[in-house]
Amino acid sequence: MSATSPLTPEQQQQFHHYMKQHNLDSLFNDLTKKLVEKQPLDPIQFMIDELERKDPKNQPRKVVFVLGGPGSGKGTQCARLVEKYKFAHFSAGDLLRAESAKDTETGRMINNYIKEGKIVPGEVTIALLKQAIMGHEDPNTVFLIDGFPREMKQAVDFERQVCFCQFVLFFDCPEQVLEDRLLKRGQTSGRIDDNIESIKKRFQTYINQTMPVIQYFKAFNKVKTIDSSKSVDLVFEDVCKLFD
């Protein structure tokens, strides 16, 4: 049988059944309309590009940046949001700490940055976050990314390389309250950066480099501020009002 031979009645029946089973009728109708409308010079490549755009893994993600000083309750509130709304939660800090535990050159480099309270190079953090986000099976999920971006370049590079954020959830809290929380947490957390020396460095880094990020997004009316000096339950009530 040649490649141009018409389908037999049985093959036509099988074809229509397959199209219906996989909901391909609307897809092919859409492609046909676009071919007629655009009349591309390379129709095969045009259809490939259109199909790639329809691939769920290429769809824009619904990302919310969760920012605030160290100890402001980002992780705690994100965990509650995940439980209530089934959001996906990625902590830049947790991803970096997991990577730093590996006996690799990258792991040792990250470990040194964390000990010094400095910001890990953006390309490392973005690569880890992109892998986590794009690997999620449901592109319609809301992704909470806490502790990121921590500087302007990270914000710009993430939105260029991954996707735009929907808004920034900013947990605002006085520095003294944050310090008291971190010192208390350090008694049991086992984290290498929960000591007074690292805490002071982290505060300075946050003020100098992360606050400008918050101001940047405020200029686009994309910052929603929460007073996180209150109890965990009261803070969560305020946060839920943003999503209900």
TrEMBL record:
Question: Reaction(s) catalyzed by this protein?
Answer: CMP + ATP = CDP + ADP; dCMP + ATP = dCDP + ADP; UMP + ATP = UDP + ADP
Instruction: Extract the ranges annotated as region (LID).
Output: 184-194
Keyword check for DNA damage, yes or no. no
Q: Which InterPro entries match?
A: Adenylat/UMP-CMP_kin, Adenylat_kinase_CS, P-loop_NTPase, UMP_CMP_kinase
Which EC number(s) are documented for this chain?
Answer: 2.7.4.14
Q: What class of enzyme is it?
A: transferase
- Among the record's GO biological process terms, what is one? 'de novo' pyrimidine nucleobase biosynthetic process
The free-text note explaining how the cofactor binds reads: Binds 1 Mg(2+) ion per monomer.
Gene Ontology CC terms? cytoplasm; nucleus
The question of whether Translocase is a record keyword is answered with no
Residues that bind a ribonucleoside 5'-phosphate, according to the entry?
Answer: 97, 118-120, 147-150, 191, 202
Co-factor(s): Mg(2+)
Task: Cite the GO molecular-function annotations of the record.
Answer: ATP binding; nucleobase-containing compound kinase activity; phosphotransferase activity, phosphate group as acceptor
Entries under SUPFAM superfamilies matching the protein: Dimerization-anchoring domain of cAMP-dependent PK regulatory subunit, P-loop containing nucleoside triphosphate hydrolases
Q: Where can this protein be found?
A: Cytoplasm; Nucleus
Q: Which amino acids does the record list as binding ATP?
A: 71-76, 185, 230
Free-text comment about domains: Consists of three domains, a large central CORE domain and two small peripheral domains, NMPbind and LID, which undergo movements during catalysis. The LID domain closes over the site of phosphoryl transfer upon ATP binding. Assembling and dissambling the active center during each catalytic cycle provides an effective means to prevent ATP hydrolysis.
Role played: Catalyzes the phosphorylation of pyrimidine nucleoside monophosphates at the expense of ATP. Plays an important role in de novo pyrimidine nucleotide biosynthesis. Has preference for UMP and CMP as phosphate acceptors.
Q: Which family does it belong to?
A: Belongs to the adenylate kinase family. UMP-CMP kinase subfamily.
> What protein does this entry describe?
UMP-CMP kinase
Q: Which organism is it from?
A: Naegleria fowleri
